[in-house]
Amino acid sequence: MALAVFSQQHPPAATEASSRYCRLLRVAQERIAQVGIPTLDERDIDACLLVVLLMGRYEGATHRPGDLNSKDSFMSLQSWSHHDGAMAILKVWNDNLSHNTATIIIKQIRRGLIKSSLLRNLPLPDWMLDGNRFGEHDLELDYDRIVVRIVNLHYASASLQQKNGLQIAKAEELKNEARELDKALQDWAAQISSTCSYQRHILTEPDPWPRRHFYSSIVYSYSRPGYAAVWSQYFAERMLINSTCLRVLELSRPNQLVDFTYEQQRLECITQLKAMADSLASTIPFCLERFKVDKPNSPTRQTSITLNTNEEIKPYLASLVVWPLTIASSLEGIDVRQQLWFRSELARLGRITGNGVLECAETAETHQWAIL
Fold it and tell me: Contact at 8 Å (CB) between 91 and 32?
């Protein structure tokens, strides 16, 4: 991985990286094949999952924007084969070792596979649905239960869209589930302590505000970057569910005649989609530490904002918002200008984190990028 990322500044390193990757691939295949069920333990599973994860990261790091040259490019990425491998290994753990407490690697790999299933428009298998057995607890488990339903709802809506003929009854069922899930997300957020929430600020200086990493003059601040990451995922998931709801609303419409209920529900979805997109955009600058809030010593003084746009963005901060931006850059129904901003931000963060696939977000044609 280090050589692959380094090769972006020093191309000769790519040859050595490729050679080592090919050797690792052969060793990993042999090792995984040798792992026997009777002697299997968590260390074997964790080691195999880490190797597969790093190989997938290597494929992503070596991908270049010019490699996207067909409408099927995103869905045919080499790294997806490693996701399939990780799924198979996780299934082995589920079938043989899930009576033990899940390790942090097991939990994180499952989270990653849920994300990749959404991007590839695949349904989640039943054995993956219960987050509790994979180490999710408390508020995280509540959130996980909503997310897995959103992924499967998204798959169901996309499948329904491809069928011929009217499917009004099924579309109505999916629409109701989408509205239920959006309400569930709002109820989940209501449980978060107010100390973990955000404050809204308006930039007054400089005027105009910097365009890179700032979509508008409105920004949100949080007490910790981790809280900002949680809220950014919340905003993105609500964007996803409202975009999905718009899709099934169209499918549940019996004809093109004016329908007051349809128009009202459609307007609600569009309004929520716009509000969540604006909130996500307002959260990005804080996640990337592009400003800091100077709290006043006196309650009579106003809070001031100090911009911090010259320092380089730390890769770990960029990784906090890669997934929310991936969702936002891939949805239908978003304002075109705002979606282009999401994609340009994602491409910049791809360069920072060494992910060549994400770098494609800005230059790829719409039909070449993931469409959720």
Answer: no
